[in-house]
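We modelled the chain as a single entity of 203 amino acids. Its sequence is:
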Amino acid sequence: MSFILLMIVFRSILVPLKAALLNLLSIGAAYGVVVAVFQWGWGRSLIGLDDAVPIASFVPMMMFAILFGLSMDYEVFILSRIREEYHRGHTNIDSVVEGLGATAKVITAAALIMISVFLGFVASPDPIVKMMGVGLATAVAVDATIVRMILVPSTMALVGDPNWWLPRWLDRLLPRLDLEDEPRTAGSAPGTATPATDTAGNP
């Protein structure tokens, strides 16, 4: 469902596919840290645990659901700005630079708030709550720094204009949900700026 929604909004196949794959990277890193700390005992004394604790069956599912919501929020935020710059007529690399520069501080601040909240769970005496706190803090830290601030812009810069490629037959089938209500003349291609006109229709 998220792949389809992102494809409709951003009119692209690679962008939603990359978002899904990178989300798996973030949650995989979080799962690894939870296993290392709570099953293997790496640094468990730092969070107030004396013995290894089995991972509750519902914890991975809850972690995935919460991280998915946060990571897609960051993804849509940064991609919306990059796409906006691209439709203004900027090149792909310039759009990535402008989009990252405009959103990096906001995403970092939001991630720091969530990391602080989740690290507060570690103070709980309940091992399950500690588990959720360590896992989610790790997931958000990895997602907001390595994934959204490094991997997303770098992969978009490397791929170039094909980031926004969508087959014509699929473009005709999908409904249009423009986030920014971008004005566009008939037949204008993505990345082409639309000339401004006055009320009489003159340039």
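As a brief sanity check on the tokenised model: Residues 2-42+54-173 form one domain. The two ends are 42 Å apart (CA to CA).
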